[in-house]
Design a protein that fits this description.
By secondary structure, the protein is mainly alpha-helical. It has one domain: Rhomboid-like (Rhomboid-like fold, Up-down Bundle), CATH 1.20.1540.10. Helices cover 63% and strands 5% of the residues. It is built from seven helices and two strands, in the order βαααααααβ. Helix 1 runs antiparallel to helix 2, helix 5 packs parallel to helix 7 and helix 6 packs across helix 7. The longest helix has 26 residues.
Length: 167
């Protein structure tokens, strides 16, 4: 089930939401080129390790820039498309409520919270410490949570694919 749009008009243009959509897509361009055009698995892995957040590096105080860059990297095209659909449908209304600066702060805070939670789980389970984490899913999950709180009765038009299963 994918959201197509909500029936919930905004009062102003969603400038920050559009900028976040653009940044996420722009950050995916080199990933797309390396993975889909060149087909270079080694260079793809290097991109993910460099721009994604590797928990062990963070714990050593290295690659701190990845706290931000990892939120804009995506592993593959469906990862990007799925996240951007949800951001486009729900982000504008949350931006409308929080205002532009508040929305950007909230988006980044949710992304950082998700990242630190991931690192904590890696520590507690002693696994995944050298595996990069990428994606806007944590930030967008925060946006979805805010949307549900701010608009509990909002109507959302969704696409649902049905497939006949014969037994």
């Amino acid at each position: 089930m994918l959201p197509i749009k909500d029936i919930n008009p905004t009062r102003r243009a969603p400038v920050i939401t559009r900028a976040l959509l653009a940044l996420n897509v722009l950050a995916f361009v080199p990933v797309f080129y390396v993975a889909y055009v060149l087909g270079d698995a080694d260079l793809y892995a290097e991109l993910m390790m460099t721009w994604g957040l590797v928990p062990s590096r963070l714990l050593l105080g290295q690659s701190l820039y990845a706290l931000l860059t990892s939120m804009f990297m995506h592993a593959h095209i469906l990862h990007l498309v799925g996240n951007m659909i949800y951001l486009r449908v729900f982000g504008d209304n949350v931006e409308d409520v929080l205002g532009r600066p508040g929305y950007l702060f909230f988006y980044l805070l949710c992304g950082l919270t998700a990242t630190f939670t991931h690192v904590l789980i890696c520590i507690l389970t002693a696994s995944g410490l050298n595996v990069p984490v990428v994606g806007a899913s944590g930030a967008i999950s925060g946006i979805l949570g805010a949307y549900v709180v701010f608009f509990p009765g909002a109507r959302i038009l969704t696409y649902t694919a049905y497939r006949a299963i014969y037994v």
